[in-house]
Amino acid sequence: MTFDAIETWWWPFLFILIAGWLATDAWRFLGVYLGGRISEDSDLIVLVRTVATALVAAVIGNLIVFPSGALADTSLALRLAAALIGFLAYLWIGRKVLVGIAVSEAVLIAGMVLGL
Fold it and tell me: Are residues 23 and 78 both part of a single domain?
């Protein structure tokens, strides 16, 4: 069965829905099944947490170095400053993620309004 197998308007949407569901929910179900059986300090969970953190860091780095959309209209210095100031706010306020995000967004918006 392929994406172009059926010539109706709804088939691509159904194909994407089913393929997306199978690709993600299988891992979710496995996570729920194994979640209660694996210790938080096990090597496997430490590895999963490390890989997840590295992926988030890579996405953030990609957004800073190779931005798209409205973010591409800002300078690299502004994007770096927003990330640094947001990280410092995150550390200073007590490791609250939402504080770091809000401060970074505020710095970005202020820089865009001021034309930096």
Answer: no
pLDDT digits (tens, 9 = 90+) for 68-80: 998 999 999 999 9
Calpha distance 75→79 (Å, rounded): 6
Q: Amino acid identity of 83? A: A
- What pTM value is reported for the model? 0.67
Q: How far is CA 2 from the centre of its chain?
A: 29
Is 2 a member of any domain?
A: no
Computed from CA positions of residues 18, 21, 24, 29, in that sequence, does the dihedral angle turn out positive or negative? negative
User: Same domain for 64 and 107?
Assistant: yes
Q: Residue 29 sits in which domain range?
A: 8-37
